[in-house]
Write a structure and sequence with these properties.
The complex is a heterodimer of chains A (130) and B (296). Chain A is an alpha/beta fold. Chain A is built from five helices and five strands. A five-stranded parallel β-sheet of chain A has the order 2-1-3-4-5, sandwiched between helices. In chain A, strand 4, helix 4 and strand 5 form a beta-alpha-beta unit. With 296 residues, chain B is of the alpha/beta class. In chain B, strands 4-2-5-1-6-7-8 form a seven-stranded parallel β-sheet, sandwiched between helices. In chain B, strand 6, helix 7 and strand 7 form a beta-alpha-beta unit. Chain B is globular. The two termini of chain B are 28 Å apart. Classes of the chains: A alpha/beta (130), B alpha/beta (296). At the A-B interface, helix 1, strand 2 and helix 2 of A face helix 2, strand 3 and strand 4 of B. The complex binds cobalamin, guanosine-5'-triphosphate and magnesium ion. The site of guanosine-5'-triphosphate has 16 residues of chain B, from helix 4.
């Protein structure tokens, strides 16, 4: 059973994408926890650890991703956690490359079919379990 | 990333949240290992409180309000939401209402999917509840799946059952029918901002009196926190009372039996899932089940 946390950091009210992803992952047989909007990186990281999730999903459409995502990665590292991070939302290509360099597994923009995201997550786990 | 049982035990003894989070995952995946780890840890009797009631009545919100007014004690929250019978997946949303306590060091919230268990709980509920008692909790709140009239399982595990009703449920008559009303130790009429809550409270008190019982009915607003202090007081005084009059000891003794029952049911369920679903001969299924049960 794959357990996922979908989180929305910062003052970003765009929650449609996060909810679409949460529902799609549930329908793909995963257990999905949604934090709701307006979360601090601290809340998100503590929640991911307490819930012992397999994947941390971060949805950002506000433009603040270059501040919030590195902060989340830093806090995870600080707490000795190796939970893989996936990011989605409005992320310019250069920023996406930068975030992946920092350790984000994958970055998804508008219009990504949810099936692609599901395949990637499932594939990631099949490889990780070998 | 694997961590060993002794690492988990050492971690929990020093209040490490990550180790405790791992133990809860083991409760879900491997009850035998979970029981073995728990038996090696110190336990403290927490007040285990079941919070139950119809979908949307305000269970998660009132837990959040209780957490906000319990800063001086350690509280664990076990929040159960339903699994989809079709995909097996689940959307665990109770936590959204409690996120202001996510970084509170005295609070530990964990979400569980019901994974087909009956009674609005999860298959691992007994292991999980025992596990919380190894993490130095004063109180453990169990939020059930928004339940129907006959979901009374929570009374087998909780020391105290709180049943929430709300005036917009329009459900007082349904609730009176059976089962769920009978397991309540404390009633909360939630959403007191709705004027109809007053008459619901009066009706409920009438019903309780008619039944010759003495069960508190508390009027609350989970959003503003009004009445929540009364609820906490009622919970604390009940906990004192049941510890003094022996009810607590009896309940705990029974809980061990219910735990065994749940553990064995889960074992049988797991075996049943491994038996070919096209087999139609009940006797053959039974034989195979017995064979697999005895070989373990
Ligand atoms: C709908 C919308 C709104 C709605 C939001 C409703 C809601 N509750 O969500 C409303 C009208 C409220 C709104 C308001 C604002 N908006 Co607006 N909004 C949009 C719009 C048109 C569509 C967003 C959407 O819902 N898409 C549908 C979902 C399904 O797609 P998605 O979120 O992108 O998700 C997909 C992927 O990104 C990915 N994904 C997303 N999250 C995650 C997470 C994980 C883990 C994974 C794996 C994948 C993933 O998968 C999804 C499926 O493909 C976009 C423009 C656009 N085309 O994207 C602007 C847009 C996001 N908004 C914008 C702005 C500026 C605002 C406002 C600030 C406007 C203002 N000045 O008031 C406010 C801010 C509100 C706030 N509190 O944050 C800008 C953001 C600019 C930026 N980031 O640089 C955009 C890009 C428009 C633009 N071109 O300027 N908005
Ligand atoms: N007006 C009012 N609304 C409330 C009150 N308590 C809860 N609500 C609202 O009722 C809705 C459901 O609240 P929850 O706390 O999620 O209810 P729940 O019983 O946990 O729901 P499930 O877990 O889905 O069964 C939310 O929109 C709350 O904001 C209250 O006292 N007054
Ligand atoms: Mg709830």
């Amino acid at each position: 059973m794959i357990k996922v946390l979908i989180s929305k950091p910062g003052l970003d009210g765009h929650d449609r994408g996060a909810k679409v992803i949460a529902r799609a992952l549930r329908d793909a047989g995963m257990e999905v926890i949604y934090t709701g909007i307006r979360q601090t990186p601290e809340q998100i990281v503590q929640t991911a650890i307490d819930e012992d999730v397999d994947i941390l999903g971060v949805s950002i459409l506000s433009g603040a991703h270059m501040k919030l995502v590195p902060k989340i990665l830093e806090l995870l590292k600080e707490k000795g956690s190796k939970i893989p991070v996936f990011v989605g939302g409005i992320i310019p290509e250069d920023d996406a490359i930068e975030l992946k360099k920092l350790g984000v597994i994958e970055v998804y923009g508008p219009g990504t079919p949810t099936s692609e995201i599901i395949d990637k997550i499932k594939g990631y786990f099949e490889n990780a379990n070998i | 990333m694997q961590i060993s049982e002794s690492q988990i035990i050492n971690g929990i003894s020093s209040k490490d949240r990550k180790s405790f989070a791992k133990l809860l995952s083991i409760c879900e995946s491997d009850p035998v290992a979970a029981n073995r780890i728990i038996s090696r840890l110190q336990r403290k009797d927490a007040h285990v409180v079941g919070i139950t009631g119809s979908p949307g009545v305000g269970k998660s919100s009132i837990i959040n309000a209780i957490l906000s007014k319990s800063s001086n004690r350690r509280v664990g929250v076990i929040a159960v939401d339903p699994s989809s019978p079709f995909s097996g997946g689940a959307l665990l949303g109770d936590r959204i209402r409690m996120q202001s306590h996510a970084t509170d060091q005295n609070v530990f919230i964990r979400s569980f999917a019901s994974r087909g268990a009956l009674g609005g709980l999860s298959p691992s509920i007994f292991e999980v509840c025992d596990a919380f008692e190894t993490f130095d909790m004063d109180m453990v709140l169990i939020e059930t799946v928004g339940v129907g009239q006959s979901d009374t399982e929570v009374a087998n595990i909780a020391d105290t059952v709180v049943l929430l009703l709300s005036p917009d449920g329009g459900d007082e008559i349904q609730m009176m029918k059976a089962g769920i009303m009978e397991i309540a130790d404390i009633f909360v009429v939630n959403k007191s901002d709705n004027p109809a809550s007053i008459s619901l409270k009066t009706k409920l008190e009438g019903i309780i009196k008619f039944g010759g019982k003495d069960i508190p009915v508390i009027l609350a607003n989970s959003i503003t926190g009004d009445g929540v202090e009364d609820l906490i007081k009622a919970l604390d005084s009940r906990f004192e009372r049941i510890k003094a009059d022996g009810t607590f000891a009896t309940k705990r003794k029974k809980r061990v039996f219910f735990h065994a029952q749940s553990f064995l049911r889960r074992k049988i369920d797991t075996i049943m899932q491994s038996i070919h679903s096209e087999e139609t001969d009940i006797e053959k299924i039974e034989k195979e089940l017995m064979k697999k049960l005895c070989s373990k």
